[in-house]
From TrEMBL:
Tree of life domain: Eukaryota
InterPro entries for this protein: Amidoligase_2 (IPR022025)
Pfam families, sorted: Amidoligase_2 (PF12224)
Designated name of the protein: Uncharacterized protein
Length: 359
């Protein structure tokens, strides 16, 4: 692909959330805010505007997302000088690569030069997406929803096993609405969604048996954001984005860039083509996913050096068996059966769940 081409379409608007466990190389900190202020100081020196979120200020700061935000959403261990940090980017536009790629690389340079950065299993990378030219239309969002359901198991094949069964990125395909219907029935149901709010609810309908229901004391199924593809913002009046929550923690700038490109290219293709192109009677393969991500990269005129990052995600991808165990609400007896089956196959329980179960 010729990366020198210009593309006159606006592409997508996006933001990225990078969760990490961070330790300062030069200072001991008593709390998260102290550590976050040090990160901000280093970012400001690199001319990257940054701010530490707090309850009284976050609402105002996040209205425009003109600065990076340091947020505390992960457990910390002050005794070891380790703090969970979520770095929330400012708003970027995919076509303005001259701006967001250098800024992301510089952000990571700041982190790696002044801090020890740990990408633990509790951390993840989230990408928020919306059309650059205006709000989501129902037809475009429906295309993304169908892509998310159709390719879910293929996308699982790109992820480490713990991201298949993490309750903070649960399955859209096997949610409380779509656990029973087959793929053609799901596509028909998505086509019947009459509004963005209706579509968001169908995609993110959470089971009353889930850990989230126990935490929030819900006794019935309900809408919740912690799905692989979070469309709950489509049900609200605030900034309406679609959030891709499944990627693991970024270990470096290349990881962050790769997941942004993957989410943006697939979403770009799906929003324009998936509604007509996908056949729910077919079983997709990883090669199909690769082709469609490539199509999204083509219309977005992604340069060759960035294409290499996408190809890296697919290089170690592996097809997975269809999941058959729902971990939500599983009894002790059912879990013992899983342990027995895992032992019979010569696997650890965690590996068995990653291959054959879902949240």
């Amino acid at each position: 692909m010729d990366g020198s081409q210009t593309f006159d379409q606006p592409g997508l608007r996006f933001g990225v959330e990078i969760e990490l466990v961070v330790k300062s190389k030069s200072r001991n900190h008593a709390d998260f805010r102290s550590l976050a202020m040090e990160i901000c100081l280093h970012l400001e020196k690199s001319r990257i505007p940054s701010h530490v979120a707090c309850l009284s200020q976050k609402a105002d700061v996040t209205k425009s997302y003109q600065k990076w935000i340091q947020n505390s959403t992960l457990p910390s261990n002050p005794a070891e000088n380790l703090f969970g940090v979520e770095l929330v980017s400012s708003i970027f536009y995919t076509q303005q690569r001259h701006k967001w790629i250098p800024e992301l690389r510089e952000t990571w340079r700041v982190l790696e030069s002044g801090f020890e950065v740990h990408a633990t299993k509790e951390c993840s990378t989230h990408v928020h997406l919306s059309p650059a030219s205006g709000p989501w239309t129902l037809s475009a969002a429906r295309g993304v929803a169908k892509e998310a359901i159709f390719f879910e198991r293929c996308i699982d094949g790109l992820m480490p096993g713990h991201r298949h069964i993490n309750p903070y990125c649960t399955s859209n395909r096997w949610n409380a609405v779509y656990g029973g219907p087959d793929m053609p029935q799901i596509f028909d149901d998505l086509s019947r969604a009459e509004s963005l709010a209706d579509l968001g609810e169908r995609m993110c309908w959470c089971s009353r048996d889930s850990v989230h229901a126990r935490q929030t004391l819900h006794q019935d199924d309900f809408v919740h954001p912690h799905f692989r593809w979070n469309l709950t913002a489509l049900t609200e009046s605030r900034t309406r984005t679609i959030e891709f929550r499944q990627p693991p923690a970024s270990r470096n700038a290349r990881d962050t860039l790769a997941w942004i490109l993957f989410a943006a290219c697939l979403t770009r293709w799906a929003s324009e083509r998936a509604d007509a192109a996908l056949n729910p009677a077919e079983t997709p393969e990883i090669a199909d996913l690769y082709r469609y991500v490539g199509a999204g990269a083509h219309v977005s005129v992604v340069p060759d050096d960035m294409l290499a990052l996408l190809e890296g995600l697919f290089r170690s991808a592996k097809p997975l068996p269809a999941p058959r165990h729902d971990l939500k609400g599983m009894t002790e007896e059912e879990m013992d059966e899983l342990k027995t089956e895992a032992k019979r196959k010569g696997m650890s329980l965690e590996k068995y769940k990653a291959l054959f179960a879902y949240e």
